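ESCALATION

Customer reports they have been waiting on this structure for their group meeting. Please prioritize. Original submission:
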Amino acid sequence: MDNKSAIRVVGILLVYAVFALVAKVLDPGWILPRVTNIGVIMLVLQSNALMVVAVAFVCSLIWFIAGEWAIQAWAPVRTWYLTWVLLFIVVVAAAIYYAFQGPVMGSLERVNSNVLGCYLAVGLLPFYLSSLLFTSTNRRYVIWPSRHVVKW
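Update from on-call: job pushed to the front of the queue and completed.
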């Protein structure tokens, strides 16, 4: 591993540390209005959000390792796109799974969509940002708009 790869791994870790902190201090007041047993529900929501962040982190590491060592540099671009899209789908599936694995909250109809939106945000944003900013050198410009954003 050269210095640029180490710096990229540290960048990925920093992005996920920020989003794990966001998932940990998540205030469910805007997600769960009119819920009385907020302590237990908040614990479940935070742990599920951290699991979504963890799945996204593993997908980012898989993307980085695939770009750095697994997929050959001369592989067709569609191989890179397919790999990234499949990892993106894994993160979306994890967010959907954990949104519906939360506590049953009675007659609140909009809770699942709010929770799903929150899980998608804490899962997809760090995955997209880490793959946009810290992709390996082989396929740095696969993710849109990295050609305009990444200059190092």
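Sent to customer with the following note: The longest helix spans residues 38-70.
Escalation resolved.
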